[in-house]
C-alpha cells in the first residue's frame, strides 16, 4: 500500500463532502420568499420525502432479501464473502447521495425563485450551487465508498492486491441495485405524474401548466426531483463507482499491481478538486439569452476538464512512469468523448439547430408526420455517438498498449486503457452533474414563481434558467449514456477476467463471435433493451391512467376546486405515483437480474459475454435514439410555443404536443432506464460469475 | 459430379417454371370483366410497367457501372473473374422474376374481381394462382441460376468443387443488388403513393379510399404491386439464392465435398415439388370468415411443409448417410422456426388477438397513447422471434455436429448446419410466397370492384380476400425477416471461411468479441439498421410531400375533377413516385455498400465480422419491431373501422389513423428494407473480401 497516495485519495473524497456541505449551508442562507412560496415548496418537499420514504422502505425489503440470498451463496462458496455487505453498504451510500441531493434540490427551488427577484445571477447561483451539492456528494460518497473498502481489505484484513481487486469488483452491485430503483422507479413516477397532470389539467380542464388547482401539480414537481435529481444521480453514481472498480481490477489483471490500482482512484480525486475549482467560474450578468447563460455554465466544466487533462499527465507519469504514458492518452480519449457526445446530443435536440427546427416544420402535416420525423431524427442521431465511442475505445486500447493483431498477449493493458477512458470521462462528474441537477431546481423554481404569482420579470428569469436547464439536461443525458456504455464495456472486460480466474480453460482470446453460444447470447442481449423499453413505456401509460382517474375524481368530488376555493389533495397523487412506480419496476428489475444468470446457465459464460456485448451495443443506440427523439419533440413544441409556425393553440402546436407526449416516456423513462440495464447486466454477471461458470446445461 | 442428382435438381427448377407457366395460362383464361374494369386494370398495369421500365433503366446503369468496377478488380486479382458476370446474370434473373410476378399480378387483379362475381372460391383461385406463379417463378429461376452456374463451372470449366463453391459464393451479389432496388425503391414508392393519396384524398378532399377521382389512386394501386409483389419477391429471391450458395460453400468447408454441396440444391428441388403439390389443396367454399379462408391457404403450406419434412430425411440419408443424419434435424429446425415466427407475427398484429385489441383501446386517450402503445407492442414482440431463431441456430449447430466447447475443431459442420436450417426454412418458399403475393392481387381486386361499382356482394367477397391478404402479409413479413436473419448468419459464416482461405493467419475461433476491432465493428454494425431506417422513413416523407403537391395541383387546375367530369392525370403521380423512389434510394444503397468495405479497411476482416453480426442482430430486431408496430396499428384502425370503439369518424378512429400513418413506412418501407440491408452487407463483404483482407489501415 502506498499510504501517501491513499491518504490523498481519501482527502479528495472528504474534500468533496466538506465543500458540498459548505455550498449547502450557503444555499440554506437564502430566503424562501413569501409564505405562499414556502407553502408550495413545502408541499413539493413533503411529496418528495413521502416518495423517498416509501421507496426506501421498498428498497430495504429488496436489499434484505438480496442480502440473505447473497449470504447463503457466499457461505456455499459461490460468492465472495464481502459481497453481501458491500451490497448493503453500496446501496446505503447511493441512497445517501440521493437523499442529500433531493434535500438540497427541494430546499433550493423556492430560494432560486426568490433570489431571481433580485437578479439573474443570484438565481443562477442558488440553483447551480444546489446542483453542485448533488454533484459533489455523488463523487465524494462514491470515492469514499471505494477507498474505505480498500483501506479495510488492505489494512485491516491484509489481503493481496489481486484478492482486493477481485472482491471489490462485485462491490458495485449495491449502487447498481439502488440505481435501478431510483432511475427506473423515478422515471416512471415523473412521467406518470407529468402525463397524468397534462392529460386532465391542460387538455380536459383547460387550466395552464403548473396551475395550483391541478391535484397532480405537486406530484409533477416532485417528479422533476425524483426523476432528474435522484434518478440521474444514482445512475451516474453507479457509473462512477463501476468505472473506478473495474479499472482497479483491470489494472491488477494487467500486472500493474497496487500502483495501477491506485491510478483510477487518484484520477477521481484529481477530478474532484478540478470540479470544485470549476464551480467558482460559474456566474453571469443580467442577459437572459441562452448563449450567455450556457457559456457561464460551460466555463466551469471546461476549466475543470482542462485541469484534469493537465493533472492526469502527472498522475500517470508520477505513478506508472513514462513507459505507461500511453494510458494518459486513454484518459484524454474518455474526457474528450464525453464532451463530444454531450454537445452532439445538444445539437440533435436544441431548437437553435437545424434538426429540431426541421422537425418542427413536420408538424404542418399533422401528428403522424412529426412522429415519423422525430423517430427518424432520433435514429439518425445515433451514428455520431457510436463512432465517437468507437474511436475512443479503439484509441484508448491501442494507446494503453493493446494490439489488435496480438490480442491475446496484450489485451490486459488494452482493456485497462478502455476502463481508464471511462474513468477519465467521469472524472469531472462533480461539475457535469452539477450543471445537470441544476435543471430540475430551475424548473421547480419556475413552477413556484408561477403558482405564487411572482412578477413577470421574475418569471422571465426563471424561464431563462429553466430553458438553460433543458439544454444542460440534453447534454447531461448524452453524457450519462456515453459513460454508461464505456462503464459497461469496462465491466464486461472485468467479467471476462473474473471468469478466467474461476476457470483457466476459459480463454478471452477465443471468445469467437462465430461460436453460436456467443452469437445467440448477442441476439438475446440485443433484444433486452427493446423489451426493457417496452416494459417501462407501458408502465408509464398504466400509471398515468391511474393519475387521470384520480384527478378526474378530485375535480368531480371536491367542491370549488376549479374556482380555486377548494383545496386539492396533492398527497394522494404523489402516493399513487409512488406506489405505481414501485409496482411497475418489479418486472423490468427481474428481467435485468435474471437474464444474465439464465443465459449463463444455458449458454455458459461465453454466452453471457455475448449477451452483455449485445445489450451494451443495442442499448447504447436505443437509449440515444429515445433520448434524442424525446428531447427534439420537446423542443420542437417549445419552439412553436415561442411563436413560430403558428404558435400556441395552432394545429401545428397540437401536432407538436402529440410528439412531446410520446417523447416524455422516451426521454425521461425508457431511454435513461436503459443506462441502468446495461450496467446492471454486467454487474449481475460479475456477482454471479461462480454460478455462471459452474452451473451449465449445454 | 453426380450427374443423376444434378439432373434431378435441374428438373426441379424447370418444373417450377413450367408449372408457373401452366398456372399463368389458367389465370389469363379468366375474363377481365366489364370495360370499366379492363380500363382500370390497364391503368394499373401501365403504371406498373412505367415503374418497372424506369427502374430497370436506372438499375441497368448501376449494374453497368458495377460490372466495370468488378471487372477491373477481377483483372487486378482482387476478385473472382466470374463475379462480374454473375452480377449481371444474377440481376437479370432476379429482374425476370420480378417482371413475371408483376405481369401476372397486374393481370390477375381485374380477373379476381370478376371471378369473385361467380363465387368466393373462384376469386380465391385466381388470386392465389397468380401468387403461386410468382412464388414458383422465384424459386424456379433461383434454383436454375444456381444449378446452371454449377454445371458451367463443373462441366465446361472442370473446376474443383472447392473452387466452384468459393466462386459461387459471390454469385448472390446480383440478386442482392437487385433486391436493394426492388425492396427499398418499391417500399418508398408504395408508401409515398399511399400516404400522399390519403393525405389529400381522404383528409383534405374528403373522398373515400380507392376513389377514381383521386389522381394518386392508380399510383397507390401500382404501389401495392411494386412493394408487395416485386419487392417481397426480390427480397426472398435473394434469401433463397443466398442461403443455398452459402450452404453449398459451407458444405465444402466442412469437408463434405460434392455430396454436401448438392444437398441444399436437392432440398430446394424437393421443396419445389412439395410447393406444387401444396397448391392443389388451396380451395374454399362460400364462407367469408377469415378463419375458414385462412385454413384454406394454410392447408396448402402445411402439406408442403410436411412433404419436405419427410423427403428431407431421405435426401440427407441417401446422399450423406446415417452418420450425418443430424443435418436432417437442422433442416427441420429451420422449417419449424420459419412457421413459428410467421404465426407469432400474426398473433402480434392481428385484431383477433389481445395485443392489437389492447392497442385499439389506447386510442381512447388520443394519438399519443396509441403511438406509445404501438411502439411498445412492436418492441415487446421482438423477444419471441429472437428466442426462436436463437434456439434454431444453436440446435442446428449442435445437431449438425458442432460443439460449443470444441468450437475450433467442429465449427465447419456446425455452421453448415445453420446454413441448412436457412435452406430448410426457405425450401417451401414456392407456396409461402404464393400466399403472400396473393395479398396485393386481392387488394387490387377490391380497389377495382370499388372503382368499377360492382355489386355489394362482390365487394364483400373481395374484402374477405383482401383482409385474408393482410393476415398472410403479416405472416409473410415475419417469415421474410426470419429467413433474412438466418441467411445473413450463413453468409457471415461463409465470409469467415472466405477470409480464412485468403489469409491463413485469420482464425475464426479467435475472433474474440473482446477484441476492440470486433467490438467496435459490432457497435457500428448495430447502428446501421437505425440509420438505414431513418433514411428510408424520411425518404417516404419527402416523396409523399411531392405527391401531395401534385394531387393538390390537379384538384386545383383540372376542371370538373371533383365532380367526376374531368379526367385526372394518373401517370404524373406514378412518375413522381418512380422518380422519387429512384432518387431516394441512392443514399441508403451507398451506406449498405460502403460500410463493410470501409470498416474492413479500417478495422480489418475481424471488424467486418463484428459489423455483420451487429447489423444482423440489431437489424433483425428492429425489422420485427417496425413491421409489427406497423401491422398492429393498421389492424387496430381496421378494428375500429369495423364498428368497435366508436367506429369510423370517431375521435378514437382519428387517433388510430395517426397510428396507421406512422405505421405505413414502418411496416412497408423501413422494416422490410432492413432485410435487404443485413443480407447485402454480408454479400458485399464476401465479394470484396480480398480488399478487406489486403487493404488495412490499423
Automatic annotation (TrEMBL), chains A, B:
Cofactor(s), by name: Mg(2+)
Activity regulation information from UniProt: Requires K(+) for maximal activity.
Annotated catalysed reactions: Na(+)(in) + diphosphate + H2O = Na(+)(out) + 2 phosphate + H(+)
GO BP term, example: sodium ion transport
Gene Ontology molecular function terms on file: diphosphate hydrolysis-driven proton transmembrane transporter activity; inorganic diphosphate phosphatase activity; magnesium ion binding; potassium ion binding
Domain of life: Bacteria
Site features described as Determinant of potassium dependence, chain residue numbers: 473
NCBIfam families: PRK00733.2-2, PRK00733.3-5, V_PPase
Similarity remark: Belongs to the H(+)-translocating pyrophosphatase (TC 3.A.10) family. K(+)-stimulated subfamily.
Entry function: Sodium pump that utilizes the energy of pyrophosphate hydrolysis as the driving force for Na(+) movement across the membrane.
Protein name per its UniProtKB record: Putative K(+)-stimulated pyrophosphate-energized sodium pump
